[in-house]
Amino acid sequence: MRHANQNAAETPRRRIRAVYTAETITVYQAYKPQIAIATARDGRFPATWSRERMTWIKPSFLWMMYRCGWATKKLQEHVLALEITREGFESALAGACLSHHDPDVYPDRAAWGRRLHATSVRIQWDPERDLGLRPLPHRSLQLGLAGWATRAYADQWLVSVRDVTELAHEIHGLVRAGDLGAATELLPKERPYDLADELAAVIGATPNDDRAAQSPSPRGNSGG
Question: Could you tell me if 109 and 38 are in contact, meaning their C-beta atoms sit under 8 angstroms apart?
Fold first, then answer.
């Protein structure tokens, strides 16, 4: 199956794919109704939303659907599309550390441990998902924010909020009916999010030079 018009064989193993503009990037989170409805209504997180806990944001819509079961799991019944500043997003990436040691990113486990304890921002690369929520060969970014990053995300970076729960249910209904073409048309139109080489290296993304070996593909959107 082709997801967002990209053949998995043509897709770099670790690359951020997202809906974005020149100034913002859209990420996804799922919440219980009390939090989601208030956040979508007011365009900001309520005071009851903890700014002291780690929160995970996902640029991939389908990975978010995998995580929340198409907005059916308990306490994840509503999915929010949160538009945040690219400046804030990239500042979090610049200060991040992979959740697990990766010898391709860190010279040794000790260096990874020092980085891990020096920052409160975490990176995970988990298998991207297709419309059937089956794992694909390439990876999707999860960004874990804590401390300063959580507070900045909630109170400085947030530009707009939309409740996309009905969209999730509509796409899921089409998938269940076997109409994958119509389901694909409704997906948010994600496209590769290019990073400076230095920033890509920090988060363990596929280096820019590797992309030259990939076959060109049409630009196609969407919380290891």
Answer: no
Helix (H) or strand (E) holding 82: strand 78-85
Dist. CA 63–CA 139, nearest whole Å: 10
Q: Which position has the token pair 């874990």? A: 144
What confidence tens digit (pLDDT) does each residue in 15-37 have? 999 999 999 999 999 999 999 99
Write phi, then psi, for 121 (nearest 5 degrees).
-110, 135
68 CB-side CA count, 13 A: 28
Q: Are 29 and 81 in contact (CB under 8 A)?
A: no
Task: Count Cβ atoms below 10 Å from residue 66 Cβ, excluding itself.
Answer: 22
pTM check: above 0.85 = yes
- What stretch of H or E contains 78? strand 78-85
Round to whole Å and give the CA distance between 52 and 54.
7
Average pLDDT of the chain to the nearest whole number: 90
The per-residue pLDDT for 2 is 43
Rounded CA separation 220/211 (Å):
16
Q: Quote the CA–CA distance of 14 and 126 in Å, as a whole number.
A: 9
At residue 118's C-alpha, the angle toward residues 116 and 121, to 5°, is 65
Give ∠ CA 136-218-65 in degrees, rounded to 5.
40
What's the pLDDT at 156? 98
Distances (CA, A) of 180 to 83, 130, 137: 27, 10, 20
